[in-house]
Amino acid sequence: KPEELGIVVCGGKGKVSRRAPSEIEKFSDVFSLSDKKIGELKYASRMAAKVDNTCLQDGYQLYHHCFVLSEDGDWAVVQQGMHERLARRYHWLSEDIRSFVEEPHTGIAGDRREKVVLDMTARDSEETRKTSLDLVRDDPRRLGGYVREAEQRTLDDYLARSPQVLTLIMPTRHTISDLTERTMAALRKAYELQPSNYEELVAIRGIGPKAVRALALVSDLIYGKSPSWRDPAKYSFAHGGKDGVPYPVDKLTYQKTTEILEGAIQEAKLERKEKLNAIRRLHEFL
User: Fold this and answer.
1) CB of 11 closer than 8 Å to CB of 17
2) Which stretch of DSSP H or E encloses residue 23?
């Protein structure tokens, strides 16, 4: 029971993930958390999901959202997405969060790094975030003109900016013609609300991947404020998965890793009882 363990997992896989807000509210009451804290927790759950779906455009479709809540109000989020039968996990930890839209992840685990990823959470995207905000606050109706101008730019235009540049690497997707009426409606709503920062912009309902991508590309093509196109994934699944995804479990590597961890415990300056407990926990985890 959560009240006995002091921790609970909200949300889950597929449609179950949508229960996260109501479950956060339910178990926050069990932990006697304040209404203000409950609001902050529900916001954290929603923003973690939205940022990984909207600001980090790596091609992985999110289908799993787990919100881990402690009795003290600390939280962690673990999300998983799939792309071409490959899995990727996104890890958030409340104690590490300084901003929901700048380097918010504790870690991102994947089997491979993608060649082109629009990462609006990267520090290198700071100027793009600022320009995107300025575009919305100015008047999104002008965005149509910016779009037409951006799509008419040629390679010579770019080389004219910096004649010394001999090689130009462009993202695979540099079209913003999918700026639909629905996306424009969301941008008009953002203009009316006048968000004071990029996080407030992203938090607006209706601002999705297309809006973020359009603003980022106009910032890049018209104003020269380039976002990060580097994949932020840093870790890989070392042992495979029991379901064969992303590949079958490598038993030899799995056993070797276990031996290394056991050896480290044996060499550690711990009492015998502590060592035995550590080894027991290791085997329970594995």
Assistant:
1) yes
2) helix 20-30
* Rounded CA separation 170/270 (Å): 54
Write down the residue that tokens 């018209």 correspond to: 222
Low-confidence ranges of the chain (pLDDT < 50): 154-156, 158-174, 176-177
Strands (E), 24-124: 56-57, 61-70, 75-83, 86-93, 107-110, 118-119
- How far is C-alpha 208 from the chain's CA centre? 13
Cβ pair 54, 183 in contact under 8 A = no
User: How far is residue 178's CA from residue 158's CA, in Å, rounded to a whole number?
Assistant: 23
> Does the CA dihedral 161-124-237-172 come out positive or negative?
negative
DSSP three-state, residue 235:
strand
Whole-number Å distance between alpha carbons of 193 and 15 = 31
| Cβ 229 vs Cβ 249: under 8 Å | no
State both tokens at 168. 């130009």
pLDDT in tens, 228-274: 999 999 756 566 666 665 567 778 877 877 787 788 777 777 787 78
Rounded alpha-carbon distances, angstroms, from residue 237 to 66, 110, 242, 259, 263: 19, 6, 12, 18, 22
